[in-house]
Write a structure and sequence with these properties.
42% of the residues lie in helices and 8% in strands. It is globular. The C terminus is likely disordered. Bound molecules: zinc ion.
């Protein structure tokens, strides 16, 4: 009877995490059946269940209660997180949550119901495992004690090899316990340390009164823009309004090919060899800005309603003076609303550091531009994605060869609107006097210019070089150039055109704030004025902690697949007014380049 009660309690506890198990199974079945993954997941889930049930029948009461306490407490944080965001808790999020545990009382106000769910699950599991068993036989005692522990170490070992990945859909208790072991390991080896305060001295205080803007676009491939290609799309940056200079670094390599990784490193700095420690334990760009006397402004265009984007958390928020979002602006107009807001900050006479995360051209791009901007045709069908800023879901896009032609045309139209018209609007209102804007994109895109089918544009396990190919442009005025400590951008471009990297941006921004260049570069590597001697490559194994090493994808400029002009028919001169192009009848030949 008691055994049945124990089993029931455990099953009820585990059923709290049921949605994650369903999600995991679904992801392994659709859109394509992954037999190996399915078998591996089922085996791992089964083993974790064996671990929990063996623990429940350990005859030695103190050991049983001890394990019950340990495993049920371990699960609270994971279950709380998963029931509040309705998604799996990755290892990174576990670390952030531990770091933020100081503000537990604030979290309680916001996530009380999710924390209750985590707590109830823990109590049920604690009792289910811990309660005494009637017929005590010491026969399998050793095995019953060894099994749950060995399973825990095996799980931690698997997660170690996979850099923390692999616990999706497993019981929260085991996930939490394994994360705890990995965290303990990383703390003891000092990969993770509490975030440091700013230690560098400001050596050039009051080095100008202009703003410093980091303008980070989303999914903009550098080689699609007119500044980098003769057949490129209007960017608004070829000849900006008089008085504004656009210093074009040409094609640059991104830090990684996924949004969160890149934005996290742009906000915290990092070198190729040491970005995990720097990302996790060095001061944020906001902290540096504040110490240098700048007001800090974060403009997040894709997200609304105070949802964190790209691995930001409560603790990072503490150094942000103004967090701007556009809850009421339709997605199609949001980048333009951000241009207005940015112009306002540039014109307000206060010295500010502004980080603007644009909406850019992330999937879905069917509806990211107004009808009047459909200059390239045929484009993707309209009207279904007006309210989605970005998603990993590719529903509504087949990924066929034909559909990629329309995708590239929609992409071009989106660029005219969210890059070209964006800069026209921004520079039409903003007085840049003394201010500097560094413009780039988080990563590039693989829009299947080489042919082939599939639906992935970036963040792929086996990336194409174009996924890490981004624009890099600095906008300023002669007034900014004249400031003490100002960077000679023309000299920088002479050294860095078509070979610079995202990694050089963070140290550059710190120097512009007034920090000593030598001290900055000793920690964060070379700035944009120093010729980049590192390989022209991006990291496609960004989560390279524990047993994983980064993997670098080299970009060779002579192997870049430029978008084929055969996607559309050139519009005859004289009809450019409503320049609607149509593709030629013959199918596009795959662009030359390596596989
Ligand atoms: Zn992105």
């Amino acid at each position: 009877m008691l055994s049945k009660l124990k089993i029931l309690l455990i099953l009820v506890a585990l059923s709290v995490g049921w949605p994650q198990i369903i999600l995991r199974f679904e992801s392994l079945i659709a859109p394509e059946l992954q037999l190996f993954g399915l078998a591996a997941y089922a085996a791992l889930l089964g083993i974790c269940l064996i671990g929990i049930f063996s623990a429940a029948f350990i005859p030695v009461a103190p050991v049983r209660w001890g394990f019950a306490l340990f495993i049920s407490l371990s699960g609270i944080m994971v279950e709380t997180y998963q029931s509040s965001v309705e998604d799996h808790m990755p290892y990174d999020a576990f670390i952030s949550m531990i770091d933020a545990s100081g503000s537990l009382h604030e979290a309680w106000g916001q996530y009380a119901s999710a924390m209750m769910i985590g707590g109830v699950q823990a109590v049920l599991l604690f009792l289910g495992i811990g309660l005494s068993i009637h017929h005590v036989t010491k026969k399998h005692s050793k095995k019953l004690i060894a099994a749950p522990l060995l399973i825990l170490f095996a799980l931690a070992g698997i997660l170690f090899i996979r850099g923390g990945d692999g616990a999706r859909g497993l019981p929260s208790a085991y996930t939490g316990a394994a994360y705890g072991l990995l965290y303990g390991y990383e703390r003891s080896t000092e990969v993770i340390a509490p975030r440091e305060p700013v230690r560098l001295p400001v050596v050039h205080p009051l080095n100008g009164d202009g703003d410093i803007v980091l303008l980070v676009d989303e999914s903009i491939s550098g080689h699609y823009l007119d500044i980098n290609s003769a057949h490129g799309v209007y960017s608004g940056l070829m000849a900006p309004k008089s008085g504004v200079a656009a210093h074009n670094f040409g094609l640059a390599s991104s830090i990684a090919h996924c949004s969160a990784a890149v934005n996290m490193t742009l906000r915290h700095g990092g070198t190729r060899d040491d970005y995990i420690r720097i990302n996790g334990s060095m001061p944020s760009i906001w902290a540096y800005a504040k110490k240098a006397g700048l007001e800090t402004v974060y403009i997040d265009v894709p997200r609304t309603k105070r949802v964190f984007n790209n691995m930001m958390d409560e603790s990072e928020l503490k150094d942000i003076d103004q967090w701007i979002e556009f809850d009421d602006v339709p997605i199609q107009r949001r980048d333009h609303a951000a241009a207005d807001a940015l112009a306002g900050f540039l014109n307000d006479g206060k010295r500010q550091f502004i980080y603007l995360q644009k909406i850019g051209a992330h999937f879905p791009i069917h509806d990211k531009y107004p009808d009047a901007y459909m200059r390239y045709k045929p484009a993707l069908p309209r009207g279904q994605f007006l309210n989605i800023s970005d998603t990993g879901d590719r529903e509504g896009f087949s990924g066929s060869r034909e559909s990629w032609i329309t995708y590239r045309n929609s992409y071009r139209n989106t660029l005219i609107w969210n890059v070209g018209a964006f800069f026209d609007r921004l520079l039409g209102q903003a007085d840049l006097a003394g201010s500097t804007i560094i413009y780039t994109s988080d990563h590039g895109q693989n829009l299947h210019e080489r042919g082939g089918t599939g639906v992935v544009t970036h963040c792929s396990p086996d990336p194409k070089p174009e996924e890490g190919l981004v624009p890099l442009v600095v906008l300023d005025t002669p007034q900014a150039a004249g400031q003490p400590g100002a960077i000679d951008w023309d000299a920088a471009i002479a050294k860095g055109r078509n070979r610079s990297s995202h990694f050089q941006i963070f140290p550059t921004v710190l120097e512009m704030m007034g920090y000593d260049a030598k001290a900055v570069q000793a920690i964060y590597g070379s700035d944009l004025l120093t010729a980049n001697t590192a390989p022209f490559a991006f990291n496609y194994q960004f989560n390279a902690r524990l047993g994983r090493a980064p993997s670098w994808k080299a970009i060779r400029l002579d192997e870049i697949a430029y978008p084929p002009d055969s996607d559309y028919r050139p519009v005859p001169v004289g009809q450019r007014g409503q320049a609607i192009a149509a593709r030629q009848a013959s199918p596009a030949a795959p662009a030359t380049g390596t596989k």
